[in-house]
Amino acid sequence: MTGPDEAAPPISATASTAPTAPTAPTAPTAPTAPNEPTQPTGPTSPTARAGTSSAGSRRWRLRAALALVVAVLALIGSWFLLRSGVQVDTWPAFLTGADSTSITRYSGPWITAAAAALLVAGLLLLLGTVDLVRYRRSVRLSV
Question: Which of 5, 11, 29, 126 has the greatest number of C-beta atoms within 10 Å?
Fold first, then answer.
């Protein structure tokens, strides 16, 4: 069995002892005129987004539709979880003159699960809306 010192390569093999000179900053390749406006060329520039593929916009549309469908299912699931968390029991009348007595029981885990499902539904609605906006912007820029 070898220890950590025996398995490690020698220091002379990993680091050079010669100092390196700092590199000079590179000059711009094409000088611009002082009055000429500059266009952004990064991934957020309008010209970079105008060439988005149809697969990207199709992906946003599919993600938005899927997120909205799952959000509706999460809302329905949240309603059923909440209904399971609140139970009304009917007992014989405790007071004279009353037909019956209703007692409401609340179950914390079921109500917490309903709140979590509602939170997931809200986040999915937000995601679907953002993806629809992205899809519309990509369609508008590609025209």
Answer: 126
What contacts 122, CB < 8 A, 6 or more positions away? 71
Amino acid 59: pLDDT:
85
Prediction pTM value: 0.56
Sequence-ordered alpha helix ranges (H) in the chain: 4-7, 11-14, 46-50, 54-85, 108-142
Q: Which domain holds residue 65?
A: 53-90+101-143
CB atoms under 10 Å from CB of 107, counted, come to 13
Is 13 among the domain residues? no
User: Six-digit token pair at 31?
Assistant: 């000088």
Say if CB 52 and CB 141 are below 8 A apart.
yes
Q: Are 67 and 128 in contact (CB under 8 A)?
A: yes
Q: What is the pLDDT of the chain when averaged over all its residues?
A: 79
Distance separating alpha carbons of residues 85 and 105, to the nearest angstrom: 8
Instruction: Work out how many domains the chain is built from and give that number.
Output: 1
For 5-61, the pLDDT digits (tens) are 666 666 665 555 556 666 666 655 555 556 665 665 555 555 545 445 667 778 888
The answer to whether residues 141 and 50 touch, using CB atoms and an 8 Å cutoff, is yes
